[in-house]
């Protein structure tokens, strides 16, 4: 029995408003003295401000019934968040992941694994996957009812999500095995956070098989830690590619600085990237990197995007061009 399952408790005296994005993280995206953040609602397009205690949370979100008794995993999450907050605060204070111990990296990997399956979007994906599969079968002339299909309920989605949380340690090695890099933005052009903060992207194309998954070659995983810091967890192959490009740049530079400047238009970025790889210190993000990061938060959010400022122009532009993003990620059935 792991640390998570040991702390399952009955719901007596447990907070009813339960967060699927920890409050300690949301506080790092506040824009003033009070722990309030700006919010963009993808469904309505409205922008408003709210205290972190009121967002990314629902009543009884982690409560469940078993054998006639009411239980919750809220206590387990609170315990894990207490330790995770200390480690993440350490990263924010030093602006470096170079000081993390092996044990701290392992713990954060488990924290990310839990976060991956604890959100509302994870439950919505469960419901969507069942409906999408039923629709795909119907289009192929197969009656899903004949195969025993019944439309899943929200309670079934909750049960599935909590079971996934209890087994979340299977995801942790995928976070730990990546090359961790700490990316830095500015307060004037900050990082977004969303109600489903673990975002993935992959620039490699594997056609029919898809390119998104924790263990897929070339995958990039991003987890925003504060308005100016985000943790990137990259497939090791990306580090190899970057180091190879940097070696070529240094060779060309040794022969001709003029030609090197023509071939590599931003050598300082590569210098900072190599330093980030080697020391763990934060890597200044180029404007296009911040835009890419924030676009992923908009794409992966189920409904709400959070920021320290009220500038959600990127989110508005994305929804105008792709209205389907209003409902969050959808399951694809090939």
What can you tell me about this protein's structure?
The chain is of the alpha+beta class. It has one domain. 44% of the residues lie in helices and 17% in strands. The protein has helices spanning 3-6, 23-27, 74-94, 102-118, 120-139, 154-166, 172-176, 236-255, 257-263, 267-279, 287-300, 313-321; strands spanning 9-10, 17-19, 36-41, 47-51, 57-59, 63-66, 69-72, 179-184, 193-194, 199-202, 219-224, 229-234, 283-284, 304-307. The strands form 4 sheets. It has a 5-stranded mixed sheet. A 4-stranded antiparallel sheet has the order 4-3-14-9, covered by helices on one side. Helix 4 (102-118) runs antiparallel to helix 6 and helix 8 runs antiparallel to helix 9. The model has no long low-confidence stretch (mean pLDDT 91).
Short account of what is shown:
The protein has 334 residues and is α+β, with helices and mostly antiparallel strands. The chain has helices spanning 3-6, 23-27, 74-94, 102-118, 120-139, 154-166, 172-176, 236-255, 257-263, 267-279, 287-300, 313-321, and strands at 9-10, 17-19, 36-41, 47-51, 57-59, 63-66, 69-72, 179-184, 193-194, 199-202, 219-224, 229-234, 283-284, 304-307.
